[in-house]
Amino acid sequence: MDNTDLPVLVPVVISGGAGTRLWPVSRETFPKPMMTLTDGESLLQKTFNRVAALPGVREVVTVINRDIYFLARDILARSAARAMPCSFLLEPVGRNTAAAIAAAASWVARRHGDNALMLVLPADHLIEPLESFVEAVAAAAAVARQGWLATFGVAPTAPETGYGYIQAGPRIGAASELAHLACRFVEKPALELAKTYLASGDYLWNSGMFCFSAGAVLAELQRYASDIADQAAGSVSSGRELRAGDQLSLELDPAAFEAVRAQSLDFALMERSQRVAVVRNTMRWSDVGSWSSVSALLPQDGDGNSVSGDAVLHNTRRCYIRSERMVGAVGLDNLMIVDTEDALLVAHREHAEDVRHIVAALQRKGHDAYRHHRTVRRPWGAYSVLVEGERFKVKRIVVAPGQALSLQLHAHRYEHWIVVSGEALVENGTQRARLLANQSTYIPAGQKHRLHNPGSGELVLIEVQCGNYLGEDDIVRFEDNYGRAPAPAVAAQASARHA
């Protein structure tokens, strides 16, 4: 793949999905790929490091929700892939993998041509060893150059009911000894059927990874899901390009992308196309889909317990505990305890897959715990909700050196800012002021305002909100350093409404 006569290789990292089975650590605004494992690396960072080890990579493309792009950008900066050309496709909403991959294929074809090979990787998988991954990619690229849509099948080690399966047929030509015709896709089977698949040797776990040329996948999508292909391409062609230094981002056109039918690539294309190959490999692979799979990454004590964080256990067996504070466990057996600063999960190990039902219930209730942590990261820093009640909320806000919040206004709330440490440059209506520790300002509802940190250290302040509505969506942005402001005409209309 490092031969300059061969097609360009473009890894496409798909960072979607909320990881609801890994609540309360995974949330809508801090999903599973951002989770840090015990070695200090996030799943997304591991994915970036993995593609950086591949030869012949021309560009890394990441498809991600617009609201968490800045988290991925910061993770990329800490990865081995930071030295590579990188671009981001920013989704206004999630539309599953067919739409994401179709948009990425249009983007790659536009930048590198139809023959460019796309290596599509979910952002939240664990794969070891690296050498086996590189070997599997080489095999997939070999058949992809012949026009096949290659998917990666992992040799099963157990009758797993939480994974999909692919039946491997005859070997495909001489391109690779590992490539077989994909005869059948099977969704998560019952245990007895999974045992049959394991014994046959013909069925492989469906890893959700793919390799194909941009032109080949677009042509097959036109044949089997033309609406997805056309609407995704339209979201790319009418999208808005943003550039920060050497890094390019494309905001997919919201109207076009929201109109795309939500479906997985497997359902929309791979299960229907006659040009699908499965690459058999023996790499150790996990989609880290539940707390059971996370707990398996940790060593166990003599009683079968695995602990991440600070815990004292007495007469406790076969438990997994992950906590951000001290946990005492007495007389427990076969439980999972995951404790964060604002939510606690206690579940039986045999019901690890059912955690998603808790998230669904929180969504129905409109509870913020499905969407946010108490500490919410933003491109400029972070804020933490300290206390809230009827008609008031108190936040701790930390602004990174040299960063600034957007120029904005709120229709329903009044804000009081008190500087704890650092220096604040405040725009408040037509006034500009510098505030130091123990100084404060008041911002009435409907008034444009902005907060800057001009210093070399963190700015910390306390914000007290009062009003009849304190939701995070009560915000109109006019200018923003991070591309979150609407078109000028929209902002002007909003300003007129609140004048």
Radius of gyration based on Cα positions: 25 Å
- Percent of sequence in beta strands: 25-35%
Mean pLDDT: 92
The beta-strand count equals 30
Strand order of the largest sheet: 20-21-22-29-24-27
Give the distance, in angstroms, between the N- and C-terminal Cα atoms: 60 Å
Structural domain tally: 3
Query: What is the third-level CATH name, the topology of the largest domain?
Result: Spore Coat Polysaccharide Biosynthesis Protein SpsA, Chain A
Principal-axis shape equals globular
Biggest sheet features: 6 strands, antiparallel
Top CATH class of the largest domain: Alpha Beta
CATH architecture of the largest domain: Alpha-Beta Complex
Number of helices: 12
Fold topology:
Layout: E1 9-15, H1 43-52, E2 60-65, H2 69-77, E3 86-91, H3 96-112, E4 117-122, E5 126-128, H4 130-144, E6 149-154, E7 165-171, E8 179-186, H5 191-200, E9 203-213, H6 214-224, H7 226-237, E10 240-244, E11 247-251, H8 254-258, H9 265-270, E12 276-281, E13 284-286, H10 291-295, E14 306-308, E15 311-314, E16 320-323, E17 327-330, E18 335-339, E19 344-348, H11 355-365, E20 375-378, E21 381-389, E22 392-399, E23 407-409, E24 413-421, E25 424-428, E26 431-435, E27 440-443, E28 449-452, E29 459-467, E30 476-479, H12 488-497
Parallel strand pairs: 1-2, 1-4, 2-3, 3-11, 6-12, 14-16, 15-17, 16-18
Antiparallel strand pairs: 4-9, 5-13, 6-9, 7-8, 7-9, 8-12, 10-11, 18-19, 20-21, 21-22, 22-29, 23-30, 24-27, 24-29, 25-26, 25-28
